Structure prediction request, 378 residues.
Amino acid sequence: MAGIYIHIPFCKKLCFYCDFYHIITSDDNSAFVDSLLKEIALRKDYLNTETISTIYFGGGTPSLLSLKEIETILDQINRHFKVEENCELTIELNPDDVKSDYLAGLKRFGVNRISLGIQSWRDQDLKMLNRRHNSAQAAIALKNTFKAGFENVSIDLIYGIPGMSVDEWASNLDFSFTFDIKHLSAYHLTFEQGTVFGKMLEKKLITEIDEEDSVVLFNLLLEKAGSAGFVNYEISNFGKPGYFSIHNSNYWKQVKYIGIGPSAHSFNGYSRQWNIRDLKSYIKLVNKGVSFFEREELDTRDRFNEYIMTSLRTMWGIDLEYIEKVFEKEGYDYVVNIAAKFTNYGLMKQEKNTLVLTNQGKMISDNIISEFMMPGDD
Ligand SMILES: C[S@@+](CC[C@H](N)C(=O)[O-])C[C@H]1O[C@@H](n2cnc3c(N)ncnc32)[C@H](O)[C@@H]1O
Ligand code: SF4
Prediction:
């Protein structure tokens, strides 16, 4: 069981908050798609004999690829990897790319999960974020996705946008739940260095919302998503039972995956590697078949820290049996000691042999996780 992630780095317009590797679209994707096909062939043995249980087209904007290009990439994956019959096959779509014939094509190729970047149902937020769609287009896109026969549909929303009130966030959630979506990814707006918002923050042209307000918005999210039948299986991810993202859950469960395309990350259990974050260099180096990535071997401490960082964000939490098996008594004692402090304050709880964050703990998850990190020797 393993995953394949394909990174499509093109965007038509740059959203002011976004730090994912993306560049303004060129009309000709052919050199890029050729390189993707080459990389897939070059790295066919990366996952050894693991079968592929999930494929995820992310970006950037995968929906800027033509149907023919998507089909060619899928054919190449099938040529070089053993893809399981019921493989979860997700594609991220931007609402203004969602056309009926495009959706029908995706369905024909076996795409069975759609993730739509709605972000907000309020036009003023969308303008502020520099999105290229408006809320009416987003509603049509979502309706058309269901009409095309997709059932496993997820949407992305952003909260904590300056100027959005608590009531407006509540309405955004309520309106989302009028659709039969099976999954919601809801992210608090972060101001990343180097983005337009990051630069505006440095120049004090924009301010982040207060921490207390963030807590109110997150609580509202937990409450409304819970009442609508969604399970908060990872801090930012909510799914109806049976509809959690298998691909993303596998990242958090240490399942191996290969990332194809510029900036994509891969993990094979012992090392992580990441492709060069520059399209031109990526194409040039993949064509030569030489070092288009960097690699880091993970030592025991890295693997411990990664396990804590990923598992603690999920409803499955830290598995104490796993900790004892892999990190021995020393790792076990270390975890139990630190956890005691947080369980006493009601920020974590022990359920059988697992340690999970309480709702209160989720609100300060980054601080809690950092307390668990094992420091290096230097
Ligand atoms: C890399 S984007 C790809 C999705 C697709 N390109 C789109 O824009 O609809 C994945 C999601 O991450 C979220 N995201 C990216 N940067 C963010 C930020 N700085 N703060 C909050 N959410 C962010 C957005 O919700 C976005 O839909
Ligand atoms: S959020 Fe999506 S569309 Fe916007 S810049 Fe990032 S990857 Fe591109």
Observations:
- The mean pLDDT is 96.
- The chain has two domains: 2-251, 317-372.
